[in-house]
Amino acid sequence: MTQYAKIRSAVASDEAQIRICAEHAYTQYIAAIGRKPAPMLADFAAQIAAGQVHVCVDEHDDLQGFIVFFVVGQHMFLENVAVSTKGQGKGIGKALVQFCETQAQQLRLHSVLLYTNAKMTANLAIYPRLGYVEIDRRLEEGFDRVYFEKRFS
User: Fold this and answer.
1) Coil, strand or helix: which one is 52?
2) Could you tell me the pTM of the whole model?
């Protein structure tokens, strides 16, 4: 991550940039999945209002990426993470995931849970490198989802 980037809670005025970032990050998967991926259908306004969205911004407050997560039982559920085109290759995605993990640990949660679509093969390779273990595969809402978990000791 660049030295000038910071992660902060998203505010309502971030919604348009978050939606654009999601569109750019997930459009490439529409053909493979056969429809828009779930993250493209999210109600970002409601998620921002609920405090579930954090953004990574540069020194000019331009969005570099975002992450959506929230507590479910004894786990943090990482619902969405995306990096803008200009933020790619700078460690933004990894920093956002680590931010989520830190929040989970501070709340003394057992783990971070997430899923990705089975057609998003790059994600299937990334999450294990970040310490996540595949725990399940299921068909939900017409999506072929692969679940991962990172447990804390």
Assistant:
1) coil
2) 0.94
75 token code pair: 């786990």
SS3 4: coil
**3-class SS of residue 101:** helix
Helix (H) and strand (E) counts in the chain = 5, 7
> Can you say how many angstroms the Cα of residue 129 is from the centroid of all Cα atoms in its chain?
16
Q: What is the CA radius of gyration of the chain?
A: 15
Determine the residue type at 123: N
> What are the tens digits of pLDDT across the range 27-77?
999 998 889 998 899 999 999 999 999 999 999 889 999 999 999 999 999
- Domain residue extents for the chain: 6-109
Q: Which CATH class is domain 6-109?
A: alpha beta
